[in-house]
């Protein structure tokens, strides 16, 4: 009894000492685990056959599916000259063993290589019809991968006497007579469901040629000798690489995945080292506030954890119930990376659940990218992220607030079907200002959206804007003028200079927003094959109409352009602003904050300068080239955006800064931990991919 009494009457300072002794033991165990992992990786490095990357002169580090001619077994496309002088030309051989062609290598990206055909460039420069005979022979599809020319156009060479009957969106180049005629259509034609080449082209020979720019009457203006070859790895090969394996073909030509670890020693060592530092830092904080941090790490199963990377975690089962097993009738929309479903949680909240495509090999990166961006932003015109499943869940799911009034695109292009109501001009002006507000906030936060379009602009019941879908968004460093990356986005919205030069800037969002402004004015879709072949792209159509002072032909007649002087004045000014946003040269486009200020001035015109029909006519005569935009606000004007979560004037509900919410400080601390852990996990994830 006496010893029992002593056991339960240990002085508090002594029990505190016992707790910290266990704590120090935990620290040592954690360090041992991390250093053991590092040693295992270094050991695995010694046994791997192929390194994760190879040095190739000025091209930098290249990775599978690319390799060097010195180690051809380590990839699918072997680049010659990597081991020579770094500045020496690098080449790639394509074709068969008897008829191969050597191409200069300009740039290598993870799944893309840009090569140059010097002979084709000469043909194009001299406007020689031999350019229409230069076919590019890509490697055959195998169990490992398939290959395609990313930006291409199908050219049909038809006998001069054939005279095929073709739709009006086909172009004809007759200057190769008397040998043959050339026929081609806009590449976007192929993206429409059910499209088939006209049967009258069957007797003609067809080849695919690399494309640069928008097709026009003269094929020598848009064809190029620079070829963007995209490698699409098979699902099995992607899984093999994700598991640190090496994709190979056996003696029968069938897929084989070696399980030997690849050379990730120093890169993963850095990742694990940083993780170890983070763990030590967290444990030091645990030492001072043990209970708070313990609550965060006490559950080893992230699927059942309440906070993950700073956002709440939902179980896969809960979201299956909320969406009624992803019932197709609850489908809200479909994007490039997944399908969005309507759901209702057990607590009664209505949500939108994005289910990422399983066949998309970049789904984890897009999943993490969207979480990373949305957790650092607080703005009333950006959609809110409620949470996600863990990365160990059966599927990657993102949970957003449900915006009940659909997308701007559904209102503009489908209101005749009765799905959504018609948008009057005042609402469209409000949509333009609030979308510009959201984009200006993103740019001030060093983020480029990269997929600005009306189907990513949501409307709530009071027609307040919520910009959504950040799967393609990029963080933009302050000390650079652009980020070099393969063009991504939606046809009709992609900045032509980004498409041509592979240089992403915040002016790329400005161009896309210019297309949105034209949609708000015209109610026309960005791509329409029923329009004249030179006006299939809405941006091209708008530039022609505005430049010819024919804005009235562009405007949706139901907006009251001819009957309301105020509406006419505003629409004319918005069209002229869109004209500046759609300039081919990014340097001629305004910044997003200049666009926002211009829209606010346009909106205020009806109050400050009441317009008569005559003054409105005068406004229409003036083109945007004569309109002086206000000076760009200082970056300091946006300094408070991240802090108070409120920007611009609107009747939308304001979002309060989360850091000022009273309550359990452990929740705030967990969000900080989650964000730091997310950064480390992203680093390790990228390293693991090669």
Automatic annotation (TrEMBL):
It is a single-pass membrane protein. It is found in: Membrane. Pfam families: Pkinase. Its main location: membrane. PROSITE patterns: PROTEIN_KINASE_ATP, PROTEIN_KINASE_DOM, PROTEIN_KINASE_ST. GO terms for molecular function: ATP binding; protein serine/threonine kinase activity. ATP binds at residue 354. GO terms for cellular component: plasma membrane. Residues 326-602 form the Protein kinase domain. Keywords: ATP-binding, Glycoprotein, Kinase, Membrane, Nucleotide-binding, Serine/threonine-protein kinase, Signal, Transferase, Transmembrane, Transmembrane helix. The chain crosses the membrane at residues 14-35, 268-287. This is Protein kinase domain-containing protein.
């Amino acid at each position: 009894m006496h010893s029992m009494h002593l056991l339960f009457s240990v002085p508090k300072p002594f029990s505190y000492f016992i707790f910290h002794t266990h704590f120090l033991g935990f620290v040592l165990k954690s360090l041992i685990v991390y250093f053991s992992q590092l040693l295992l990786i270094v050991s695995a490095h010694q046994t791997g056959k192929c390194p994760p990357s190879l040095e190739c002169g000025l091209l930098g580090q290249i990775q599978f599916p690319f390799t060097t001619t010195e180690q051809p077994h380590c990839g699918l496309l072997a680049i010659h000259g990597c081991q020579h002088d770094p500045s020496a030309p690098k080449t790639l051989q394509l074709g068969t063993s008897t008829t191969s062609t050597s191409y200069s290598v300009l740039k290598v990206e993870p799944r893309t290589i840009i090569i140059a055909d010097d002979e084709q460039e000469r043909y194009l420069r001299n406007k020689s019809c031999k350019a229409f005979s230069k076919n590019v022979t890509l490697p055959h599809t195998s169990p490992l991968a398939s290959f395609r020319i990313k930006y291409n156009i199908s050219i049909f060479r038809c006998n001069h006497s054939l005279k095929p009957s073709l739709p009006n969106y086909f172009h004809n180049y007759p200057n190769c007579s008397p040998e043959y005629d050339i026929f081609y259509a806009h590449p976007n034609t192929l993206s429409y469901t059910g499209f088939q080449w006209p049967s009258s082209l069957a007797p003609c020979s067809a080849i695919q040629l690399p494309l640069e720019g928008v097709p026009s009457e003269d094929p020598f203006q848009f064809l190029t000798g620079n070829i963007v070859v995209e490698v699409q790895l098979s699902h099995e090969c992607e899984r093999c690489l994700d598991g640190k394996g090496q994709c190979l073909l056996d003696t029968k030509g069938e897929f084989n995945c070696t399980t030997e670890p690849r050379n990730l020693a120093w890169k993963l060592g850095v990742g694990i080292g940083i993780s170890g530092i983070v763990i030590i830092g967290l444990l030091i904080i645990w030492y001072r506030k043990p209970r708070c941090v313990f609550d965060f790490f006490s559950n080893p199963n992230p699927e059942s954890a309440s906070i993950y990377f700073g956002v709440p975690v939902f179980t896969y089962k809960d979201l299956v119930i909320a969406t009624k097993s992803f019932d197709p009738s609850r489908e809200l929309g479909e994007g490039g990376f997944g399908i969005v479903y309507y759901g209702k949680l057990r607590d009664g909240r209505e949500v939108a659940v994005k289910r990422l495509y399983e066949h998309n090999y970049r789904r984890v990166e897009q999943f993490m990218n969207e979480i990373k961006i949305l957790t650092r932003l607080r703005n009333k015109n950006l959609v809110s992220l409620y949470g996600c499943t863990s990365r160990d869940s059966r599927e990657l799911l993102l949970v957003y607030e449900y915006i009940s009034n659909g997308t701007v695109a559904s209102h503009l292009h489908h209101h005749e079907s009765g799905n959504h109501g018609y948008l009057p001009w005042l609402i469209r002006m409000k949509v333009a200002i609030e979308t510009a507000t959201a984009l200006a906030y993103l740019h001030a936060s060093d983020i480029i959206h990269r997929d600005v379009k009306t189907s990513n602009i949501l409307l709530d019941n009071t027609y307040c804007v919520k910009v959504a879908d950040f799967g393609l968004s990029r963080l933009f460093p302050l000390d650079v003028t652009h980020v070099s990356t393969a063009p991504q986005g939606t046809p009709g919205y992609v900045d032509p200079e980004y498409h041509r030069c592979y240089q992403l800037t915040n002016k790329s969002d400005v161009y896309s927003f210019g297309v949105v402004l034209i949609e708000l004015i015209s109610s026309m879709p960005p791509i329409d094959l029923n329009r004249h072949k030179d006006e299939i792209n809405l941006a091209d159509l708008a530039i022609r109409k505005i430049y010819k002072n024919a804005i009235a032909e562009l405007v949706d007649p139901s907006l009251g352009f001819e009957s309301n002087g105020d509406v006419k004045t505003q629409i004319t000014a918005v069209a002229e602003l869109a004209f500046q946003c759609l300039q081919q040269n990014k340097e001629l486009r305004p910044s997003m904050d200049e666009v926002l200020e211009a829209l606010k001035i346009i909106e205020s015109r009806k109050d400050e300068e009441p317009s008569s029909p005559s003054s409105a006519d005068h406004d229409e005569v003036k083109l945007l080239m004569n309109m002086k935009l206000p000076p760009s606000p200082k970056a300091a004007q946006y300094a408070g955006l991240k802090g108070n979560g409120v920007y611009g004037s609107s009747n939308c509900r304001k979002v309060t800064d989360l850091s000022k919410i009273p309550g359990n400080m452990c929740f705030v601390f967990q969000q900080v931990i989650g964000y730091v852990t997310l950064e480390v996990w992203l680093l390790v994830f990228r390293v693991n991919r090669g």
